[in-house]
């Protein structure tokens, strides 16, 4: 058996020790046995905002937050970054068979001369 426990936990992003993680998982499991699926209830009862079990790097991970998580912002693009070109050369490809082309090949109608 390895030195590393198969149970891990984080509190506001900081990893807990193996002993603290095992204790938290034990309390969480007992609560879940009695209140099936009520993770929000366990969080409230324990003074947390949220508790989420997940799996990461071969370990069961309990993610605990005591404050609201800040909203994730999309990564900013570098000034020279552009979206990848479309395989059709930049033209939209029809989906579901596409629509028929309007008469005149899709060109705008000629405008009459304005007299002024």
Explain what this protein looks like in three dimensions.
- The protein has 116 residues and is an alpha+beta fold.
- Helix content is 22%, strand content 18%.
- The protein has a four-stranded mixed β-sheet with strand order 2-1-4-3, covered by helices on one side.
- Strand 3 and strand 4 form a beta hairpin.
Overall pLDDT metric: 77
Helix content: 10-25%
> How large, in whole angstroms, is the Cα Rg?
28 Å
Low-confidence stretches: none
Major β-sheet annotation: 4 strands, mixed
What spatial form do the alpha-carbon principal axes imply? elongated
Helix/strand layout:
Elements: E1 7-11, E2 14-15, H1 18-34, H2 39-46, E3 50-56, E4 59-65
Parallel strand pairs: 1-4
Antiparallel strand pairs: 1-2, 3-4
